[in-house]
Every structure is written in C-alpha cells, then in structure tokens.
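Appendix B, example 12.
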Amino acid sequence: MNFTTPVNITKSMHCVDFSSEIITIGSCFAVNMGAQLDYFKFKNTTNPFGIIFNPVSIEKLIVRSINQKKFTEEDVFFQNERFHCYEVHSDLSSTNQQELLNSLNTSLEFTYQKIKTATHILITYGTSWVYQEKNSGAVVSNCHKMPQSHFDKHLLSVASIEAAIQNTVDAIRKVNPNCSFVFTLSPVRHIKDGFVENQRSKAHLITALQNLLSDHLLDQAGYFPAYEIVMDELRDYRFYGDDLLHPSSMAIEYIWQRFRASSISETAWSTLDEVEAIQKSLLHKPFNSLAESHQKFQSKLQEKISKLQERYPFMKF
C-alpha cells in the first residue's frame, strides 16, 4: 500500500563533493538549501545580495558582478530613515549612505571572485511576478516598502524568463566556463499574488527552465525537482510551516535527503555522516560540565573534529 507518489530523480552527472566550491542564489528556499550545505560544512556561499526572487533581478546582479559595475549614489535612495538599493534585499539597507555603498561594492567584488572559482552554482527561482519602478522602468528585487503607486506589476513572459536565465549562464561562462548549474523552483507559495496567479507564475518558470534544458541550451546544467517533491510527494499541510506557505523543517530535511541521494557524490556520504555526528554532539548539554564523563566526551569530540580537519582544513566548528 502506497501513501505517496515519489518523484523520480535522475542521478546528477556533476555531483557535489567536499572539494566543490558552491554558490547558492535565489529565493528563501535557496537559503534553506544553503543552510543545509553550511551545516554539513561544504564550501558554500549563499545570497551575497540577500534573497532574490525573480530571474531578471538575479540576472542583473550576476551581470553587474561579472562586469564589476560599481554601485554609486544614483543606485540608492532614502526611505523610512534608511538608505536602500532596489537591486538588493533590505537586509543590506543602512542608515548611512556610504556604508551601504561600501557594503554593496564589497559584495560585488566578493561575488565576482566566488563566481570565478565556483564548481557548482545552485539557482532557485521563486516567482515570475515582478515590480517595475515607474520612473526608470527597471525591474526591482525588493520594493523596500515604497508605496505601491511607485511601481507597475506584471508577469514575466516565458520568453523573457528564458532570456534572463540564458544571459545569467552566458555571463558566468565568460569567467568560469567549467562550472555546473543546478536549477530549482521554490516550493514556497506566493499567495499574496493570488492562488491562480501563483500557479501561473510557477508555470512560466517551469516552462522556461524545461525549454532551455530539454533543448540542451544550458551546458552542464540540471534541474532538481524541489517544487515537485513538495507538490506531489509531500502533498499535505503537515509539511508546511505555521504560515501554510513555506515548507516545514521536516519537508526541508526530506528534500535535502533527496538532494543528497541525487546530487552529492557517494564518496562524500561517509563524511556527511561524520559531520552530522559532530554537529549533534556539539549540541549536547551536560548535567555537570565539570564531570569526568563529560570531560572525556569533550576530549573524544575534539579528537574527531581534529581528524576531520586534517582531511578538510576548511571545516570550522
């Protein structure tokens, strides 16, 4: 008797291992996956410019980073006692204009260097709905709580999404022709856009990605079906958080296990288990921190960490 419909996932031809240099970019689901990669001590960088939802904004930031087009005073504005930039998330906003510009340009250089050395780039798209700033006509990454009257909202066409994805890949290929791409679609439901509108948005993203992948227009690229796993395999509200929109920690863990099986090299699995055992041990809270038994526990734990760091010096606990 089956109670679910498992999504079949083909084993990746370009698996991640502990020698990989990974960049994780995109929606809040990219943050979820990035957190898993960080937990297991992969060499990973997640969203240097904060959470970005739509393909055009991701393209714009990638191209700007690769072209090293510095942010200037013209790229920032003052609202609600803080300086903001329409191209990045509000997490980067600041009360000081120069501090914001310095932070943005530091992230620009950092992103450029990471792209040049990346072996894998994971991109998660969240929505096809975008907001265009009326004065400039530019698509923004974040509205920063500016009045709705400042923007026009519209749904990106499949063709424009394909172009944005292709331009993103082409720009990266210019400085790093050998890196692999993993594309995913965020399972987070953007209900503020409307139920039908959310489905249209996801459909445009799926169609654009599959058009490019099926026509082999994206070399060394694959699709990981996170969205399909949640929609078809975990088809139950118990796999959502309290807001009933974002996947729960249980769902994220399950998606990670599917990612591990399909996209992480089997040669790395034993190390994953070692890292997890250490991480769980680090959370251990003793009844008596001065007890001899706890001191022995700590000593053995440090020995495990040291042996692992001998093989992987970049791992920090």
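The CA atoms of residues 40 and 273 lie 9 Å apart. The chain has one domain: 21-265.
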